[in-house]
Design goal:
2 domains; Arc Repressor Mutant, subunit A; alpha+beta; four-stranded antiparallel beta sheet; 228 residues; Jelly Rolls
């Protein structure tokens, strides 16, 4: 496939020339997803690793009792399931398109060849893996050491930093996220998230518009998330 010029600064392709990026993209297979489409399911053989070019994927893990745990959202420049593919394992999560989403995929053999030819890819992949590990460790500590309202604040701030779009003095989380999804991401209940967001809306910290959460006062959320 051809390189998407709107994403020439993708993290996974960082440090590579335009010509090198174009060569790597030619080796990939494009997959165009509509909103709600599943790219791969938890438990299926991990045959391809995917790079998001446009749009966003929701990565979720289903527990044995049937409850969904929202692992994270990934957007342009981010990889998914690289480790599972390289180790010939199963996909650890289910990836669903949040909206119209374009990804590029490479199988294990092709990715190994590319990483050998372009060492920068190996470095970038390691950076991604360490970043994800650090995030999961932080979320684990939050679940065990913080009040639920603080976890909601930290979750919103984390999503804001990953997917926020500045609009005047406000920051818009640039994809629709339901209160149930935020509850799944935070590890709490829909009731708690709804009660917390309603309280923050009254304080002027956040507001909702067309299914999107808008951070009106990021500084207030930061101070709240860090209170002892």
């Amino acid at each position: 496939m051809e390189e998407n010029n709107n994403n020439t600064n993708n993290d996974f392709l960082r440090g590579l020339s335009r010509e090198e990026r174009a060569e790597i993209m030619k080796c990939g297979t494009a997959v165009d997803l509509k909103r709600g489409a599943v790219l791969f399911r938890q438990g299926e053989p991990a045959t391809r690793t995917f790079l998001v070019l446009e749009g966003r994927l929701k990565l979720a893990k289903l527990h044995e009792e049937g409850k969904e745990f929202l692992v994270r959202y990934i957007g342009p420049g981010e990889l998914t399931s690289m480790i599972a593919v390289l180790q010939n394992r199963e996909y650890p999560v289910t990836a669903t398109a949040v909206g119209a989403t374009l990804v590029a995929g490479w199988d294990r053999k092709r990715m190994m060849e590319l990483m050998s030819e372009y060492p920068e890819l190996t470095f970038n992949m390691l950076h991604h893996a360490l970043e994800r590990l650090e995030e999961l460790q932080s979320r684990y500590l939050e679940l065990h050491a913080e009040q639920v309202e603080q976890r909601v604040a930290r979750s919103l701030l984390r999503i804001m930093r990953q997917s926020g779009r500045k609009s005047g003095d406000e920051i818009v989380i640039d994809f629709p996220i339901s209160r149930q999804e935020l509850a799944d991401y935070t590890g709490t209940t829909l009731y708690t998230v709804s009660r917390t967001l309603s309280a923050w809306e009254k304080k002027g910290w956040v507001r909702s518009q067309s299914g999107r959460i808008i951070i009106v006062d990021p500084h207030a959320l930061v101070l709240f998330s860090e209170k002892i």
